[in-house]
Amino acid sequence: MKTLRIAALVCVALTLYNCKTKTKTPPENETWRKGIVTDEFIYEEAPYPSCHAATIAETPDGLVAAWFGGTKERNPDVGVWVSRKTGDSWSTPVEVANGVINDTLRYPSWNPVLYQVPNGDLLLFYKIGPKPSEWWGLKMSSSDGGKTWSEPEELPDGYIGPVKNKPVLVENGNLVCPTSTEGNGWHVRMEITSDFGKTWSMTDTIPRGPEPINAIQPSVLTHGNGKLQIICRTRNRALATSWSEDYGETWSDWELLSLPNNNSGTDAVTLQDGRHLLVYNHVLPPDGKVKGPRTPLHVSLSDDGVNWEASLILEDSEISQYSYPSVIQGADGMIHIVYTWRREKIKYVKVDPDKMVSYPIENGIWPGVSVHSDQEPENSASLGASL
Question: What is the pTM of this model?
Answer without folding.
Answer: 0.90
